Amino acid sequence: MSQFIKQPKLQNRSAEIGQAFAKCLAEIKSGPWKFIQLRGETFAADNLTDDDIDLLGTRESVHLLLKTCFEWVRAGRCHMRIRSRKENKVEFTLFSLDGRQSALFDLWTNLPQLDRGRSSLTYEACQTAVIDSNESIQRLPFEIEACVYIQHLICKKKNLNTPSVQHRLTNYFQRFLESRNVELRDVVSSILLNETLSPTAEQISLEHLNKTLNTSQLKRNQQQTSTIFAKLQAAGIGTPRHSSMVTMIGCDGAGKTTLAHELKKHDTKIGRIKTGKHFYRKALSYKLAVIFIRPLLFQDRERFDEILAPFVYLRACLGLRLMLLFSSKNSSTLIDRSLIDFLYVDRKTDAPRFSKFHWLRNLFGVRIPNVHCIASHETVMQRKQEVTRQGHCRYDEDMFQEFALRCPTDAVLFNNDGELDASRIAIQRILSKSGVCTVLNDTAEHVAQHKNRNAA
Hints:
Largest sheet: 11 strands, mixed
Number of strands: 16
Helix content: 40-55%
Number of helices: 18
Low-confidence stretches: 1-6, 443-456
Strand order of the largest sheet: 8-1-2-5-4-3-16-15-10-12-11
């Protein structure tokens, strides 16, 4: 009988989560930022597809959007993931609380796809041409939008036979039938008929953009030769495209360790959980320092680690490198605490901060993907009463600045205020998109099998 009572509650909860996600999307369309949607249907919760939503804006708008969504995560409204490998683009995904629904946005500060990548489109160049300048999410006249899309197809060497490309070109052609721009109509028609992009189509679309946009704000791309230092830095600390390792970070009491062990318990792809502090605490040099130096300082283990922060960080970097070298590619590893945590001092005070040796992060270490577990102070106090409200808030804000706004990065901001099983399922759905976890099967048959296995 209890099963029949719980079912409506689960349905109501799912509906509430879907409504909260739809409200977040609606607020993106009415926020204090300015973006131009470059193509596609105007996004909403009921018409989302697997395609990304390309938005062009200023760096200030990008940061404002990310900071606002960070506050939504803290308030328990959603989760988010931020990936960035280049300074001009941020890949931002908004997730519903249960991880079922998601919206993927490509946030461009300049779009290097004009004239075969020799020029970049900027928000300032399009600002005078937008149709709805007072809106948060603006659109360009469809003639300009079509020309930008043609330049995109040329620069990216897209396959013109795919359904999505054919569908989008057909929509542009139908709209051109109602307009007086015969030249652009014929260009789109020839692309559809011949399934090729001719030099004439490239020239006409580029000329139209030069006539209608503020060409002084178009950014000319220059071929830059990377220095040896830049190449070494990118190879040394750059975020890998595919990684079988994920770090779990969060304020003391945010539940990251419990969540990690729950994930390993239910996901066979996760092979092990590594305690981050073991990267240095098991080293012979550290053990000798604890024996001979710590007694002279009259400090506990935590405070001693903070005093030795730069040495601890460098030894942990070496430990992570060795682990990456000998790790298995067939299973995933969760690491409890990030390397950056070892450069964060005074954690249990009202004013935690990064060590003055924080600059070491730009020279040493590896930027593997991380999950930032965020919980309310009330939740934290149930586990770690020594964590102050100010210190807890400061930690989350500092780690958001450190991971979400840097480049390169791959960071998930996860609200961990929910029940343990619900949080585990949600983060499993999110991490399965990057191959860290197995793809979660939500069918009734799979759920029944899972319950029977746990009962056995």
